[in-house]
Specification:
By secondary structure, the chain is mainly alpha-helical. The protein has one domain. Helix content is about 70%, strand content about 0%. It contains 18 helices and no strands. The protein is globular. It starts with 10 loop residues before the first helix and ends in a 9-residue tail after the last helix.
Amino acid sequence: MEGTHSSVTPTWKMASSLTPDVSPARPSRVHLPALDGVRAIAILMVIVYHALNGLPAATGPQNVFLNVVQQGWVGVDLFFVLSGFLITGILMDVRRPEHALRRFYARRLLRIVPVYVAFLLFSMWIAPIIGTMHPEEVAQLKSSQLWYWSYSFNLMVALHTWQATSFPLAHLWSLSVEEQFYLLWPLAALLMSPVTLRRTAVGCIIAAELFRLAFILGGAGGQVNFVMLPCRMDSLAAGAFLACAYRDPALWSRVLRARAWVAIAAVVPVLAIALYRHKFSSQAPLEQLFGFPAIIALASVIVATSVGGVAWLSTAAMRFIAKISYGMYIWHLVIMRLIVHVQRIPDPASPQLWWVFYIVRASGTVCGAILLALLSWYVIEQPFLRLKRFVPAD
């Protein structure tokens, strides 16, 4: 979405100022610039998390710092809520639904697949040459590549644990979840009434928690609840619910009034788990049953608040990061591997050098991801995005 507005007036308020013969703009066609900032925050959280995850700490403050940074995986949940909000809104606002499904899939294909395909080909043929993947990792990728090409990589992780993949490709599980969501949800959004769709979204939120509970009681590994769509669909469904609420003035007003209470209720279990376990793990049952809903609730509060406009989230820098965020996500582990090859481990007896090490690792990964994402944007993404003009959204 393109636009420069720092805030957006919801459609029901815009309509009163329009003349009777002018149709008000649909919400999905009105740019919400603060949501670009939410997207930027989400990608930066994930990249810094990957850059610093697993590193040792030399002092107590460094240990606290790394524990905080290691919660950056929640950026994926923030993005899922945002994605559910945007995609559901686009589908709800379609004027001519007879061709909407075909157009939606065509536009999604042009946006997502080219870079994904380029990354997989790079990983198989170029990465071992430049040293960002080891020969064993490449062999493992080639032997299991069907899971990647079919966007079912998350299923492979669920069945065979994280050992079935290599680190430079481990982040692709979230793209599998997204694609599976895109396969199933658009039809519901086009066929159901707004009220039914809203109730379905609530049902998905409840069902995801039940799925997680069932897998935990069944003795499944923690990776199952982390990567499977049925167990993670509550974040996408929460965004879908917000999209439905945004198009109902009375309900949206109630959502906005409830934000503070929702945030307080969500912070309590997060803090309780952190104090009880002295950490917050994405793979542990306690966090998956009580922490995941709390994280999704907080992400929903952030998205709902941003819809009304938040100045610092709407800056040019945030919008720039948001524009290339998909490329940053796809390519950032390539940059991290390059940095790992050249960065020297500090002397354990020099705690101050570890702070420098953290800063260089994190900032280098972010900056390198921006540069590589820009190259990806101009060489791969933009040429395919221009083809969208042949597939109008409505």
